[in-house]
Write a structure and sequence with these properties.
By secondary structure, the protein is mainly β. It has two helices and 39 strands.
Length: 567
C-alpha cells in the first residue's frame, strides 16, 4: 500500500510540473496555421438590426474624477457606435477599431470598425464615426451599406486628410482606400489598392521626398496579387502601384515610417518562434524600385498566439512597431511590442517590448511591461504608440483582477520616458468586463486596437462589453508626465493655489511674470495674459472640470509649467 501511494504521489508531482509546458505547447499554433486562420469571408447573409435600431439606452461614458492624484493618469471614455442622440443601440456589435487624429486639430478624430448590425449574423460592414469636439459626441454611419467589409485601418497625412483602408472579399481580398478631406465627416468612393487579408497601412508624414506616400501590406497567403503583398501610392492615394513581394513575408503586424522617411514592417515571419522586421530606405523615393533590407528575426521569449482562451476565434493581438521621431537622445530608435505567449515561464500572454538603436539591425533583450507577479494572467491586445516627444505609451486588456477564471478583463496602461528601459507602474483605467458576451456569431472581439500618442496624451480606439454587448469606444488618456506644452518643472519660485480649485486660481512668482498662459490637455491655448507683476489671478469659472496647465514666462525668457485641477 505504501509503495502504491508513493507511486501515485510521484505521478501527481510529475503531472503538476509538466502541465504548464504541455498545455502551453498544445495551444501554440504553427505559423502556417496561424496565417491560414485569417480568412475574412462572409459566413452569414446580412441581417438588419432585430429591433430596427429603436431599442436603445445610455451608452457607457466615464471621466476620471478631478480629485484624482496628480501623479496618476486620467482617462475620458465615451462610446462611439451610437445613434444620433448618443444612445447605445441594442442587438448590434462592433469591434476591431482603428483611428485617425487630425494633426492640425486634435479635437477632430475619426474611428472605423467592423460593424455587425445583428449579432445573429457575422456579416460585417465598414462602420465609421467622427467627432469634432474631442470625443464628447460622435456621428456614426456606414461606408457602403450592404457591402461586406472588414479589417479597417485608418491613418492621416501631414495636412490632416484621413484615409480608411478596408478589405472586401469580392473580388478576391481586394482593399479599397477611402479618403476624407474634412476629418472623417464624409468619404470619397475609394480607390482600389490591391490588398489581402489582415492588411495594415502607414502614411509618410516626414516632410521629406516621400511625404504623403501611402504604404500597405497584408498576409501573402490571402493576397489579391500573389506573390506580391505590398503596395505604395506616391500620388496621395489617387492611384496605387503594382504590388510587390516583401523579404521575409511578414504578416499579422503593422508598419511605421521613421522621421527620415524610412519604412519598417514588423510581424511574424516564416517561423513563429520569433518576430520579424524588414526595412526599406528607398521606398520613400517616387518611382523607385523598392529595395528591402535583409529580414531580421527578433527574439521576444515567445510567440504570437490566439484562437483560444480570451479570444477563441481571434488573435491575442498583432505585432506593433513604431519609431522615436523626437529630437531627443533616443531619436530614430525603433520599438516593437506585442502580447506574447512566453517560452521561459509559459505565461499565456505578457506585454513584451524590445528596442533597436541601430535602425532595426540588432535588438535589446525582451522587457515585460506588465508588472503582475502571476504567470497565469493574460495580457492581450497590447497596443503601442510613441509621442512626438519620445514618450512610449502601452495599453492592453488584463485578466489579473479576475478571480473567477472566466477571462474578465480590464484596460491597463503604462508609459516609458527612457526608451522602454523602465515603465511606469501599471494603472487600471476601466472596470472589468466579460469579453465572451455579445459575440456577433463569431467568437472574437476582433484582432486589434489602435492608438495615436501625442505630447498631450493618448487617443485610443478600443472595444469592450461594458454595455453588456460588444461596442467600440474612444478614450483619451493623460499620463502625469504629459503636457501639450513642455515637461513640467519643479521650481520653488512658483506657487499656484488653491489646487484643486473651483475656478479662481492665484499665481505667485518670485519674479516678474512677463507672460501667463493656460492650456487644456490637448494643448489648446485657453488664456494668455501679460501681468508684468509678481502675482496674478486666473478666472477659470467658465472652464469645464478637468486638468489644465499653467505656463509662466519671466523677464529672462525662462518658462515654468505646472499642472492644475479645475473642480
Amino acid at each position: 500500500m505504501k509503495n502504491k501511494l508513493t507511486l501515485i504521489l510521484f505521478w501527481l508531482c510529475f503531472l503538476s510540473f509538466t502541465d504548464l509546458p504541455v498545455s502551453a505547447q498544445k495551444n501554440k499554433i504553427a505559423i502556417k496555421d496561424l496565417k491560414q486562420l485569417y480568412r475574412e469571408l462572409p459566413g452569414d447573409a446580412y441581417l438588419p438590426n432585430a429591433f430596427g435600431n429603436r431599442k436603445t439606452a445610455p451608452g457607457y461614458r466615464f471621466k476620471t474624477p478631478v480629485l484624482r492624484l496628480l501623479t496618476a493618469s486620467t482617462i475620458f471614455t465615451n462610446q462611439v457606435n451610437v445613434n444620433p442622440a448618443g444612445l447605445n443601440i441594442f442587438g448590434d456589435a462592433a469591434n476591431e477599431p482603428s483611428l485617425a487624429v487630425n494633426p492640425l486639430n486634435h479635437n477632430q478624430v475619426a474611428i472605423g470598425w467592423r460593424q455587425f448590425d445583428n449579432v445573429s449574423s457575422n456579416f460585417r460592414q465598414g462602420g465609421w464615426a467622427y467627432t469634432s469636439n474631442g470625443g464628447q459626441t460622435w456621428t456614426y454611419s456606414i461606408l457602403e451599406p450592404g457591402i461586406f467589409r472588414s479589417d479597417p485601418v485608418l491613418d492621416y497625412d501631414i495636412n490632416g486628410n484621413f484615409y480608411y483602408n478596408s478589405l472586401t472579399n469580392s473580388p478576391t481580398y481586394l482593399c479599397k482606400v477611402f479618403r476624407s478631406n474634412n476629418s472623417g465627416v464624409t468619404w470619397d468612393s475609394g480607390v482600389d489598392a490591391a490588398g489581402g487579408d489582415k492588411q495594415w497601412m502607414a502614411i509618410d508624414r516626414s516632410g521629406g521626398v516621400g511625404n504623403g506616400n501611402i504604404y500597405s501590406f497584408w498576409t501573402l497567403g490571402f493576397s489579391s496579387c500573389s506573390p506580391g503583398h505590398f503596395v505604395r501610392s506616391a500620388t496621395g492615394g489617387n492611384s496605387y502601384e503594382p504590388c510587390l513581394p516583401i523579404t521575409g513575408e511578414p504578416a499579422l503586424g503593422t508598419m511605421a515610417v521613421g522621421k527620415n522617411g524610412e519604412l519598417y514592417i514588423a510581424g511574424v515571419g516564416n517561423s513563429n518562434d520569433s518576430l520579424s522586421i524588414v526595412k526599406s530606405v528607398n521606398s520613400q523615393t517616387p518611382g523607385s524600385s523598392v529595395i528591402w533590407n535583409q529580414s531580421v528575426n527578433v527574439f521576444v521569449d515567445g510567440y504570437l498566439n490566439g484562437f483560444f482562451g480570451v479570444n477563441p476565434a481571434g488573435l491575442y493581438g498583432q505585432v506593433n512597431v513604431d519609431v522615436d521621431r523626437s529630437n531627443g537622445p533616443n531619436a530614430n530608435n525603433v520599438y516593437i511590442m506585442a502580447s506574447i505567449s512566453r517560452f521561459s515561464n509559459f505565461d499565456p500572454a505578457d506585454v513584451i517590448f524590445v528596442r533597436s538603436s541601430d535602425g532595426g539591425l540588432t535588438w535589446s533583450s525582451p522587457v515585460v511591461v506588465n508588472d503582475d507577479i502571476s504567470t497565469s494572467n493574460t495580457q492581450w491586445f497590447a497596443t503601442m504608440g510613441v509621442a512626438p516627444n519620445g514618450r512610449i505609451d502601452a495599453i492592453w486588456l488584463d485578466t489579473r483582477l479576475d478571480l473567477s477564471g472566466l477571462d474578465y478583463s480590464a484596460l491597463f496602461y503604462s508609459y516609458s520616458t527612457n526608451a522602454g528601459i523602465s515603465w511606469s507602474p501599471n494603472e487600471q483605467l476601466s472596470p472589468m468586463f466579460d469579453p465572451h458576451i455579445g459575440y456577433p456569431n463569431q467568437q472574437k472581439m476582433g484582432d486589434y486596437f489602435d492608438m495615436e500618442s501625442t505630447n498631450s496624451g493618448v487617443h485610443l480606439a478600443w472595444a469592450n462589453t461594458l454595455n453588456g454587448e460588444q461596442d467600440v469606444y474612444y478614450s483619451f488618456i493623460v499620463p502625469p508626465v504629459a503636457t501639450g506644452i513642455e515637461q513640467i518643472e519643479v521650481d520653488q519660485k512658483l506657487r499656484i493655489y488653491p489646487v484643486p480649485s473651483d475656478g479662481n486660481v492665484i499665481v505667485d512668482f518670485a519674479g516678474v511674470i512677463k507672460q501667463l498662459d493656460v492650456y487644456d490637455v490637448l494643448g489648446s491655448l485657453k488664456i494668455s495674459t501679460h501681468p508684468n507683476q509678481f502675482s496674478a489671478t486666473l478666472d477659470l469659472t467658465s472652464f469645464e472640470s478637468g486638468i489644465y496647465f499653467v505656463k509662466v514666462t519671466d523677464l529672462t525668457g525662462q518658462k515654468i509649467t505646472r499642472k492644475i485641477i479645475r473642480q
